[in-house]
Amino acid sequence: ETGVTQSPTHLIKTRGQQVTLRCSSQSGHNTVSWYQQALGQGPQFIFQYYREEENGRGNFPPRFSGLQFPNYSSELNVNALELDDSALYLCASSLEGQGVLGYTFGSGTRLTVV
Amino acid sequence: RKEVEQDPGPFNVPEGATVAFNCTYSNSASQSFFWYRQDCRKEPKLLMSVYSSGNEDGRFTAQLNRASQYISLLIRDSKLSDSATYLCVAFDTGRRALTFGSGTRLQVQP
Known about the structure:
The complex is a heterodimer of chains A (about 110) and B (about 110).
Chain A: E1 5-7, E2 10-13, E3 19-24, E4 31-37, E5 44-50, E6 53-57, E7 64-68, E8 74-78, E9 87-94, E10 104-105, E11 109-113
Parallel strand pairs in A: 2-11
Antiparallel strand pairs in A: 1-3, 3-8, 4-5, 4-9, 5-6, 7-8, 9-10, 9-11
Chain B: E1 4-6, E2 11-14, E3 19-25, E4 32-38, E5 45-50, E6 55-57, E7 60-65, E8 70-75, E9 84-92, E10 97-100, E11 104-109
Parallel strand pairs in B: 2-11
Antiparallel strand pairs in B: 1-3, 3-8, 4-5, 4-9, 6-7, 7-8, 9-10, 9-11
C-alpha cells in the first residue's frame, strides 16, 4: 500500500503571494490533517478534513484554507504569505475512528517565504 | 503557556547511557499521549503510546501520571541511532488534533 505523498517537496515564494500544497492520503484513509512546523518547534495543528469538510481547526487565520477531494486527497492553500509562514508543512492521513495509531505522516513540503 | 512543554535539550550522552525525558501538559481534556521521534528534516514517526500503567518497548519505557499531568520517556543503553528529536504529544479527541511539544533533542556520542 502506498503511503502519504506530498508535493512539492520544496518551494520558495515571495511575501504576499499565494501557495497551494498537495497531499495524497494513504490508501484506505478518509481523513487528512495538516500541520505547520516552524524551525525548532513541534508541529502545530492547522485543520482536519473528513468527507470533504473541515471538521477541526487550530489557531490559524482564515488565509489558511483547505480542500479535500472525493478521492480523499487534499490541498492546503495559504493566501497573502508572510515571512513567518516559512515552515515545514506536514500532511497526515488516517481512518476516521482509528485514532492516532492510524496516523501516517507525509514527508512534508518545506516552504520558504522571502 | 504552551499546552505541551518539554526541555529542548540538547541531551548529549555517551553510547550505553540511560537518558530520561520529561514533559508536562496543561489541557486536562487531552485523552491520549504519545512519544514521536523526528529525525533531522524528516517527518515525525510514532515511537510509542503512553499509559498510566506504563508502556515498555525494548529499551524504551514511557509513563503517564495524569494527576500531575506529567509524561516521561526513558531510553536505556542508548545507541548512536537513537540520536533524534523526541516529541511529546497529546491527542484531544474533541478537537481531533495532536498537540506537540517543541521536542527534546538527543545526541548519542560514540
